[in-house]
Design brief:
- The structure is a single chain.
- Helix content is 39%, strand content 17%.
- By secondary structure, the chain is α/β, with parallel strands linked by helices.
- It has a single domain, classed as 3-Layer(aba) Sandwich (Rossmann fold).
- It has a 7-stranded parallel sheet, sandwiched between helices.
- Helix 2 (35-45) links the parallel strand 2 (27-32) and strand 3.
Length: 246
């Protein structure tokens, strides 16, 4: 049984991915800060596969160690999916007014925590193991008001690219999930109707292909990857152009 650690798995994209991986026979170690919501997700999936729910904060070194220990207790570790993220203030402030203490917290969650989990996991990942770091188009494009979150995701992308060079025995991916209808996205656009955004499930086939397919390490947009039989043919969701993915 292949085992994956999925962070931020109590809702949104992380939860949608966990559900699909459970149906595909993966063992799961799930992380989120909200213990009750994480426990509900774990109970839902326990009838489908082996699940370990480990609530905690990805910025905590002890918590990261417990995630890897839980994975090894299930028989090994095949993949790490760093999906948990911090948005920062809502609405997003310009850099001239960005509180630096909050910026440090965003970087701890979006950059330092994921790298720390990877460092903990690397000794347990066998050749062919997968690392998938969820980023954003704000990592590659400059959007007014997105300097904090976007720069943290840009840093995560660069770390991911360097890790791919340093560990050619692994598949190391940085992936933009695209514009999705999630709670974080709503927080990014307070007061705006985001009901026209697609649900998180539209990004899941692309993530699964990165975890189970043979794509080389690199940067991908999940909604453009898709399963092998439809790669490159998935139409864009109406109304997504020019919007920030978070």
């Amino acid at each position: 049984m292949k085992v994956a650690i999925v962070t931020g798995a109590s809702r949104g994209l992380g939860q949608a991915l966990a559900r699909e991986l459970a149906d595909r026979g993966w063992g799961l170690v799930l992380d989120a800060r909200g213990a009750d919501a994480l426990a509900r997700t774990a109970r839902e999936l326990e009838g489908r596969t082996a699940v370990r729910a480990v609530p905690g904060d990805i910025t905590d070194a002890g918590h990261r160690r417990h995630l890897v220990e839980a994975a090894t207790s299930l028989g090994g570790l095949a993949a790490v999916v760093n999906n948990a993220s911090a948005l920062g203030p809502s609405p997003q402030p310009g850099l001239a007014d960005y509180p630096l203490d909050v910026l440090r917290e965003v970087y701890e969650t979006n950059v330092v925590g994921p790298l720390g989990l990877i460092q903990e996991a690397l000794p347990h990942l066998r050749p062919g193991g997968r690392i998938v770091n969820v980023t954003s188009d704000a990592a590659a494009e400059a959007y007014e008001g997105w300097g904090g979150y976007g720069s943290s995701k840009a840093a995560l992308e660069q770390l991911t690219a360097v890790l791919a060079e340093e560990h050619p025995e692994l598949s190391v991916h940085r992936v933009d999930p695209g514009d999705l209808r999630t709670r974080m996205h709503q927080e990014a656009f307070p007061g705006e109707d985001i009901s026209d955004r697609p649900p998180p499930e539209v990004a899941v086939p692309g993530l699964v292909r990165l975890l189970e397919g043979d794509l080389p390490s690199g940067r991908h947009r999940a909604q453009d990857v898709g399963p092998p039989e439809t790669a490159g043919t998935r139409p864009a969701w109406p109304g997504n152009a020019g919007r920030v993915s978070v």
